[in-house]
C-alpha cells in the first residue's frame, strides 16, 4: 500500500549517506531493511491543526461519544474523556516467589486496586493497613497485552484517524512492566496499534496518508535520536508556539514489519547506550511516535500516536548517598514526572494553562496536552511486598 509514494526524493535506507544499512547518517547495522522504508526529509515538524473534522472512524462511520466499537464489548474508553488512567499489575516473578514474598495487591471490583500494607505496631503486633485506589480500569496479572490494548490504546487508533493526537504513557517503578506493556517487540501496545493503523490505511480514503516513525529518548533533560546514533537533538518553539524537534529522523513506514525493524534498531541503540551516558535505560524516557502525514497537503500532520515508556518512577528519588551523576539523573527524572503530572492534571481539568514548559518531556509532548488530544496513562505495579512503598507511590501519582 502507498507504494506510489516511495519514489520521492527522500533518502532511501538502502542507499547513500543516510542508509541505515551502513555508510553515514545513522551509520548502523541492523540487517536489511525493506527497501521501501525511507528516511523522510528532516522536517520543521510543523504540527498541523487541520483536524476539526467530525468524529468518524476509519470507515467514515461516526464514532459515538459513548463506548466505541474498536475495543469490542470490553472497551470502556469514552472518547469524550481527555484522559484515562489505568493500572496494571504484573505477576510475582521467580525471585520474588523464591524469597517467599506475597502478593499484596488485590483487585476489588473492576476498577479498584487494594494494597494490603504489612505493618507492625510499637508492641510488635502485626497488622494490615488497606489502601484502596479507584481508576478508570484495572488489569490483573493474568490479563494479556492484547486485552490491555483493547481497553486502552485501541480506541485511540480510531481517534488519530479523525485527526487527533493520542498518547499512551507507561508509568511505574523499574521492573514493574512498563516496557513489557508499551514497547515489547512481540505484542507491546505499539505493535498492536500498528497492526490496526496499517489495516485502516488499506481503506481508499487514506491513500494519501503516509505513516512516519520517529524514536528518541530523553535523558537528563536532553533529547537523543535513537534512529540516528543517539545524535543530540534540540526542541524549539516556532512563531506559532508549536514545538519542533529540529533534525529528528523520521522513516516512512508501510507495514508492521517495517515498523518493527525500525523500532528494533532504535531499541538496540537505546540499550547499548552508544555515547556511554545512560547505560541504564530505566533512567531515560523513550518516545516512539507514529505520525500520519497527508501527502496531498504538503505532508502536514493528520494524526499522531505517541507511545512513551517513562523512566523508572523510583529513580526520581535517587538522592542522599547516591553519587553526583545519579543524584542529577534523579532530580531531572523527578522534575519531568512532576511536570507530567501537572500537565495531565491540567488536561483532566480542561485548564486553560498547561505548564508544559516545566520539563523537556512535557515540552516535546506539548501537543499531547492541548487541543485535540487524548491521553491514556497506564501505571504499572509490582505486586510483591518488598515493592509496597513504590507501589503506593505509583498509585498516589496516578490517582486523580
Ligand atoms: N504483565 C506481565 N506479565 C508477565 N511478565 C511481565 C509482565 N509485566 C512485566 N513482566 C516481566 O517483568 C520483567 C520486568 O518488566 P519490564 O522490563 O517491562 O519492566 P520496566 O518497568 O520496563 O522496567 P525498567 O524501568 O527497568 O525498564 C520482564 O522480565 C517482563 O517480561
Automatic annotation (TrEMBL):
Keywords: ATP-binding, Microtubule, Motor protein, Nucleotide-binding. The keyword Nucleotide-binding applies. InterPro entries: Kinesin-like_fam (IPR027640), Kinesin_motor_CS (IPR019821), Kinesin_motor_dom (IPR001752), Kinesin_motor_dom_sf (IPR036961), P-loop_NTPase (IPR027417). Residues 1-35 are annotated as: Disordered. Transmembrane segments: none annotated. One of its GO terms (biological process) is microtubule depolymerization. PROSITE patterns: KINESIN_MOTOR_1, KINESIN_MOTOR_2. Residues 1-20 have a biased composition (Low complexity). It holds the Pfam family Kinesin. One of its GO terms (cellular component) is microtubule. Residues 82-400 form the Kinesin motor domain. One of its GO terms (molecular function) is microtubule binding. It comes from the Eukaryota. ATP binds at residues 172-179. Belongs to the TRAFAC class myosin-kinesin ATPase superfamily. Kinesin family. KIN-13 subfamily. This is Kinesin-like protein. It comes from Piromyces finnis.
Amino acid at each position: 500500500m502507498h507504494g506510489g509514494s516511495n519514489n520521492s526524493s527522500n533518502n532511501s535506507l538502502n542507499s547513500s549517506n543516510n542508509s541505515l544499512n551502513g555508510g553515514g547518517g545513522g551509520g548502523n547495522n541492523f540487517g536489511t531493511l525493506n527497501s521501501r522504508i525511507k528516511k523522510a526529509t528532516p522536517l520543521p515538524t510543523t504540527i498541523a491543526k487541520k483536524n476539526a473534522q467530525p468524529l468518524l472512524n476509519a470507515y467514515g462511520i461516526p464514532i459515538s461519544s459513548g463506548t466505541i466499537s474498536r475495543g469490542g464489548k470490553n472497551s470502556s474508553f469514552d472518547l469524550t474523556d481527555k484522559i484515562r488512567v489505568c493500572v496494571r499489575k504484573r505477576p510475582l516473578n521467580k525471585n520474588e516467589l523464591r524469597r517467599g514474598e506475597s502478593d499484596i495487591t488485590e483487585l476489588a471490583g473492576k476498577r479498584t486496586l487494594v494494597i494490603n500494607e504489612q505493618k507492625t505496631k510499637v508492641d510488635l503486633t502485626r497488622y494490615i493497613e488497606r489502601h484502596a485506589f479507584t481508576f478508570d480500569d484495572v488489569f490483573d496479572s493474568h490479563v494479556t497485552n492484547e486485552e490491555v490494548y483493547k481497553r486502552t490504546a485501541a480506541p485511540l487508533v480510531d481517534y488519530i484517524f479523525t485527526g487527533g493526537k493520542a498518547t499512551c504513557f507507561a508509568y511505574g517503578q523499574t521492573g514493574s512492566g512498563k516496557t513489557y506493556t508499551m514497547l515489547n517487540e512481540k505484542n507491546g501496545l505499539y505493535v498492536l496499534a500498528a497492526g490496526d493503523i496499517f489495516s485502516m490505511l488499506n481503506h481508499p480514503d487514506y491513500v494519501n496518508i503516509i505513516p512516519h516513525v520517529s524514536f528518541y529518548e530523553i535523558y537528563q533533560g536532553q533529547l537523543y535520536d535513537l534512529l540516528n546514533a543517539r545524535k543530540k537533538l534540540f526542541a524549539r518553539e516556532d512563531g506559532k508556539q508549536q514545538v519542533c524537534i529540529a533534525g529528528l529522523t523520521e522513516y516512512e513506514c508501510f507495514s508492521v514489519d517495517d515498523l518493527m525493524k525500525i523500532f528494533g534498531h532504535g531499541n538496540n541503540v537505546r540499550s547499548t547506550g552508544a555515547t556511554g551516558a545512560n547505560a541504564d535505560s530505566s533512567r531515560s524516557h523513550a518516545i516512539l511516535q507514529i505520525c500520519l502525514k497527508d501527502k496531498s497537503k504538503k505532508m502536514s500532520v493528520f494524526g499522531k500516536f505517541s507511545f512513551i515508556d517513562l523512566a523508572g518512577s523510583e529513580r526520581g528519588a535517587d538522592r542522599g548517598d547516591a553519587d553526583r551523576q545519579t543524584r542529577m539523573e534523579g532530580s531531572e527524572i523527578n522534575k519531568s514526572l512532576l511536570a507530567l503530572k501537572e500537565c495531565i492534571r491540567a488536561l483532566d481539568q480542561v485548564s486553560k494553562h498547561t505548564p508544559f514548559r516545566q520539563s523537556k518531556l512535557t515540552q516535546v509532548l506539548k501537543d499531547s496536552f492541548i487541543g485535540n488530544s487524548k491521553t491514556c496513562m497506564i501505571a504499572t505495579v509490582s505486586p510483591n511486598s518488598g515493592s509496597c512503598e513504590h507501589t503506593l507511590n505509583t498509585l498516589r501519582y496516578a490517582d486523580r
